[in-house]
Amino acid sequence: xxxxxxxxxxxxxxxxxxxxxxxxxxxxxxxxxxxxxxxxxxxxxxxxxxxxxxxxxxxxxxxxxxxxxxxxxxxxxxxxxxxxxxxxxxxxxxxxxxxxxxxxxxxxxxxxxxxxxxxxxxxxxxxxxxxxxxxxxxxxxxxxxxxxxxxxxxxxxxxxxxxxxxxxxxxxxxxxxxxxxxxxxxxxxxxxxxxxxxxxxxxxxxxxxxxxxxxxxxxxxxxxxxxxxxxxxxxxxxxxxxxxxxxxxxxxxxxxxxxxxxxxxxxxxxxxxxxxxxxxxxxxxxxxxxxxxxxxxxxxxxxxxxxxxxxxxxxxxxxxxxxxxxxxxxxxxxxxxxxxxxxxxxxxxxxxxxxxxxxxxxxxxxxxxxxxxxxxxxxxxxxxxxxxxxxxxxxxxxxxxxxxxxxxxxxxxxxxxxxxx
Amino acid sequence: xxxxxxxxxxxxxxxxxxxxxxxxxxxxxxxxxxxxxxxxxxxxxxxxxxxxxxxxxxxxxxxxxxxxxxxxxxxxxxxxxxxxxxxxxxxxxxxxxxxxxxxxxxxxxxxxxxxxxxxxxxxxxxxxxxxxxxxxxxxxxxxxxxxxxxxxxxxxxxxxxxxxxxxxxxxxxxxxxxxxxxxxxxxxxxxxxxxxxxxxxxxxxxxxxxxxxxxxxxxxxxxxxxxxxxxxxxxxxxxxxxxxxxxxxxxxxxxxxxxxxxxxxxxxxxxxxxxxxxxxxxxxxxxxxxxxxxxxxxxxxxxxxxxxxxxxxxxxxxxxx
Lengths: 421, 321
Fold this sequence. Notes:
CATH topology of the largest domain in chain A: Rossmann fold
Strand content of chain A: 25-35%
Protein name (chain A): Lipopolysaccharide transport system ATP-binding protein
Largest sheet of chain B: none
Oligomer: heterodimer
Radius of gyration of chain B: 21 Å
GO molecular function, one term (chain A): ATP hydrolysis activity
Helix content of chain A: 10-25%
Distance between the termini of chain B: 43 Å
Number of domains of chain A: 2
Number of strands of chain A: 19
Number of domains of chain B: 1
CATH superfamily of the largest domain in chain A: P-loop containing nucleotide triphosphate hydrolases
Number of helices of chain B: 15
Shape of chain A: globular
Largest sheet of chain A: 6 strands, mixed
Structural class of chain A: alpha/beta
Pfam family, one (chain A): ABC_tran
Strand order of the largest sheet of chain A: 6-7-8-4-9-10
Structural class of chain B: mainly alpha
Family (chain A): Belongs to the ABC transporter superfamily.
Number of helices of chain A: 8
Strand content of chain B: under 5%
Organism (chain A): Seonamhaeicola aphaedonensis
């Protein structure tokens, strides 16, 4: 256990919706009056949680509410959450761009933030001049930059253009140069916001590699915000999940990523739809997924066959024109495959269809099913994303064999045969 | 040649100012307060909503001094990139303004400048006024012009207005060279001009003027973040202020011709600065010590409030802009 280098203590940030500013003049006066009376700010009590999709009745919202995090030295902390969950606000507070409404951040090290690559680049200056300017903006001294100049230029791969004004650069080259400067920053704590999503594939690979060096090799403390779960998993040692400005999960990277992807909701492996999905041509009654040999309450294990049961009633007279299609997603949100009831067509009236996945087909992990009701094999007339989410647990393994996770998401058991030679 | 000259000026300014910075840092270190905080808490710094009224961290600004000089470099160099005349533009502006003023105010309107050639009289006033004006307008858009950068990265925001002041100092230095050129020309052609021995205090005068511009600029830049109307006011406000600053006429002439309105000029600290500058450079007019003391007090007050307001703004403006 190493020392705590950064302590985020009960940080909250309040914004006012609509107009700019912290409030109207009358709110300002009220606030000022309460301050004279040494009472707490009255507007800190109001405010709703930060949910983008719901219209709130209060003018004040909490972009962040009571965030407590302790970061150890050398740790790479991932911060994940949906758009508007408060990730960037948190980073902005950490980078001292904006102030928290309440709470304190304490740091034992110099924080450098990389919320954007190429901040302060001046189009008229040459590449080299911009390296110095950008480096200084990020907090390096002139001597530090001079020392690393050759390495930065080499890393950027812009040797040929280094004395050309940056306005003549392609956008890709500009980003390369900017990232190169940032990559050679040496603060105690580095705060990064999705800057890896830049440049071409080759450069991305290089950038991720450099990031890994920074965090693993040089033992620097890094706070990393990204939507790319694969890079979070590759880089971070620990992660937190933000939702509507509140921290809803803290723990290992893998757990945090799957927590985030299932949206924080409980696992659903059987659902009764009642009258909620009642369309013109069909009504969905229920869907369930379980091991064939086990009860619905039991966890699904990888070394047993899995059955997916769909119950619906078809109301129109042309059932042969319609199909059910499922898309299966893994916990990274990547589509694995799709499957349809082509071999067992729908019939008019009630249908209970069961689909079997052979044993050992799905690796342990979390999966999501999306439901599509397809007309004429090309047009989805109804889509319900993440209609099911389920976890496939590790099967029984013998003591002494490999206990970790095998690579990949499927583990088909192919036919093996001995041939005579 | 001129580009080399600018590089040299930049370098010299850098060295001189770094010396001043070191001096300030030593002064700041002498205060027991800074040592005290670092010993008491194991934390390097804290970020919270509480703010001190005066929170001016010299040590931090010192750490970012390289950034300040790189901004100065950028400001000076970027202006004349891809222009034909390049840095000559720094000279063309005051020369032609002085020429226009000489024709209109001295030849047409017959303003008397005594033994001093009118052109030199105007050039001195204009160069000095331009420095103040550039400091004021350059710093007054600190927040709005740099909002993009300020929303992405932290550095002490005061670095930006400071770099503007220094950039203008470089420009002013170049313009002063032209002034010296004409000075020598007029002197050699037998004009009755002479430098006053008080010229040794000229750098102090320039500093006071720069700080005055900085103070007002910081006040305005802070207020502009909330009330964008001010942006429109500055442009012509500065223009009007010039006519009240005794740039193209001596203060004595105002007293003589428009005694009822002379107080407008007398209350303007810049009028004393310009009068004094002309006195130092050309031995023209009189030096008013009470006026200068008044100017200094106003400068200190404006600078103090400017820093105070700027300091409060830099922490919350990103949510209001």
